[in-house]
Amino acid sequence: MANRPRPSSRVSGLVPVAVLVALVAAVLVAAPSGADVAVPPEATVLAGLRPGHPRLILTADTIGPLKARIAAEPTTGAWYGQVKARATALLGTPVLTYTKPDEIRLLETSRAAVRRLYDLGLVWLVDGDPAIRDRAWAELDAVTRFPDWNPLHFLDTAEMTHAVAIGYDWLYDGLTPAQRSQVEQAIITMGLGPARDSYTGNMPLAVSYWTVVDHNWNNVVNGGEAIGALAVADIDPSLAAFVAHEALVRLPSAYRHYGPDGGWPEGVGYWEYATEYTVAALASLQSALGHDFGLSAMAGLDRTGDVPIHMTAPSGERWEWADDGQPRNAPSVPAMFWLADRYGHDAYRAYQVAHAEPHALDVVWYSPPTGPSEPLPLDRLFAGIDVATSRTAWDDATATWVGAKGGDAGFNHNQLDLGSFVLDRDGQRFAMDLGREDYGVAGYFQSWPGGPRWDYYRSRAEGHNTLVIDPDACEDQDPRAVATITRWASGPDESFSVIDLTNAYRGTPVQRGVALSNRTAPGGPTVLLVDQLDFTDAPATHDVWWFLHTRAQLQLSPDRRTATFTLNGHTLRASLLAPSDATFSIEAAVPLPSSPHPAGNDPNTGIRKLAIHLTAAGATTISVAFDGGTGEPPTPPNPPALWHSNGATASVERTAASSPLSANPCKGITAADPTATPSTVPTVPVATPGFTG
After folding, report:
1. Backbone angles phi, psi at 274, to 5 degrees
2. Do residues 336 and 342 lie in contact, with contact meaning Cβ atoms separated by under 8 Å?
3. Omega of the bond prior to 327 within 30 degrees of 0, cis?
4. What pLDDT, on a 0 to 100 scale, did the predictor assign at position 28?
5. At residue 28, what are phi and psi to the nearest 5 degrees?
């Protein structure tokens, strides 16, 4: 979308046959329970195609009402004015060129084409200005004369296919027959043709591996290619039907990750990217065919707009877990308007009104709210990805907000951050996640057990607000571990989450609880963090570190059991409640002496760590409370308040997921799961998005 950070990607490694077979099997998994996805045979998949153009997102019978809304409705009119200003500013400027700054990716050019052709296409449809049409044709002429759309990095191809399809469809009536033919042939030969060859196995695996993945590449590539197929389905019906069918049978394997309750397992930034293409594909199917084969009924899609709402703190800073990037403000997501209309959530509409940049699709999909937005809960558990957030209030930039994370460390773009938490108070991010490392560092996407991804500080547990047990040069959490939020409760004055981290520490029983209590207390709320570790079956003592990363200045009390955070004139107090003989220390945000120190580690300038260091044996509890620092420090709860749910109005209890021990060649550990990917064989290259602006 215009002027906002967007994902980019990098290819690394080759795809072993065993991994490819496993991924193909994963693609064939049925859609989640409750979904009714019925993709018909290839011969009839495009039956009912709307004749003529436009038919992607907009249709001839929606243009008139859109023009009327722009003229009469203030928000729509103002946003259209901004889109028109961007389109007009392109007049007389250079067209896009075939540019790969890193000699790998054409992606920024493809994304610029998406932005430009949405803007130019919308202004042409609304105003019919020949100068805008001519500029749009200049862009189309330029990109359709490229030597290719870079299928070696197929995101580039898919995004360019999307861009040119929208330009062709929305500018159709303004193009000459010769111009239309040129664009049609480019979509067919540089967009759909490489997709066909990838689907049929006639491309090298380094190109076509995306056909069997279930992360954001699935949403983007299959979604973009489906849009291209719909654009030219009456020009090359056979090819379009084949590509559309292949894309549609693959999309459910990605969409199932929205289930059961709307989360996305790659973090907020990649949720935005995946969902942008999810909604563009669904909207294009509905406008071109009159239906979406039941894809929009898949479990969780109706609640996925909750992600940016609940994972953005009152300060306006989103939670930057996984490979998220800068800036970390709340994302602008035009798809929120589509989601609001499709599923009846005015809260989604209110969110995007507050954050729109705007994009052409904000203009297309916006409609004024019909009444007050539905009330939002203060606490939200995304059970499908084991992430939870709690806050003291909405519409209060100073409210306290806390996030607690379990999840699947092995899923694309994830890090060894199981058990990590973030904390905002008074509009400040006091406990932060560092986000991603530079995508250009060596081996960053080599994420198999023992892979170099886990050598980088920001990928390791020590680079997060969680525990490190017996640190050494090896992985400090199991990179295939799944950590379940086993208990969650929400009540008027308290909420809590309990995360089972046993899998993360390769069988050592560890439970972490995060509670927000005293929401309405005059002195403000308290956040309580309790870790319970069980070393009773181990004969030796263990080296345990507890970490919290912050940009705040830190000052310790004389006994080093109280830490005061100061950030932008605001303060937070941390009180060490247990164990009684432990103390805080202030550390640099750098690897421990025993950890790897690869070139490329971010120096984390301006960031420091509050730490606790223990020599532990037997049953060990670490308890830290955070409050505003007024009055006496909190006293240790006995038993910890977060372990029960008295007064809860909503609660969940779940069994921890099993997670077979993965290989760790650094420690000579053999995988307990015989199907685990051997550490000596690269997994599928996760040529994965990073935010490059």
Report:
1. -60, -45
2. no
3. yes
4. 35
5. -80, 0
Q: What average pLDDT score do residues 595-606 get? A: 95
Task: For residue 563, list its beta bridge partners.
Answer: 556, 574
Which structure tokens are listed for 105?
Answer: 């990716």
Nearest to 693, CA basis, from 59, 8, 181, 102: 8
Distance (Å, whole) CA 456 – CA 476: 11
With H, G, I as helix, E, B as strand and everything else as coil, classify residue 117.
helix
Q: What is the pLDDT of residues 669-690, one digit of tens each?
A: 887 755 544 332 223 333 333 3
Q: What is d(CA 428, CA 430) in angstroms, rounded to the nearest whole number?
A: 6
Cβ count near 238 (within 10 Å): 11
Token digits of residue 34: 């409750």
* Tens-place pLDDT, residues 642-657: 566 667 889 999 999 9
Q: Rg of the Cα trace of the chain?
A: 26
Does the pTM exceed 0.90?
yes
Would you say 325 and 269 are in contact if contact means Cβ atoms under 8 Å apart? yes
Return the beta strands (E) in 536-633 as ranges.
542-550, 553-556, 562-567, 570-578, 584-588, 608-616, 618-627
Residues 6+ away with beta carbon under 8 Å from 236: 184, 188, 192
Can you tell me whether residue 452 is helix, strand or coil?
helix
The helices-and-strands tally (H runs, E runs) of the chain is: 17, 19
Nearest to 379 by CA among 514, 252, 508, 553: 514
Q: Which residue has the higher pLDDT, 372 or 10?
A: 372
Angstrom CA distances, 570 to 398, 437, 565, stand at 10, 29, 8
DSSP element (H, E) containing 488:
strand 482-490
Q: And the tokens for 546? A: 């507890």
How far from 206 is each of 11, 203, 210, 223, 447, CA to CA, in Å?
8, 8, 9, 20, 17
Length of the chain measured in residues? 693
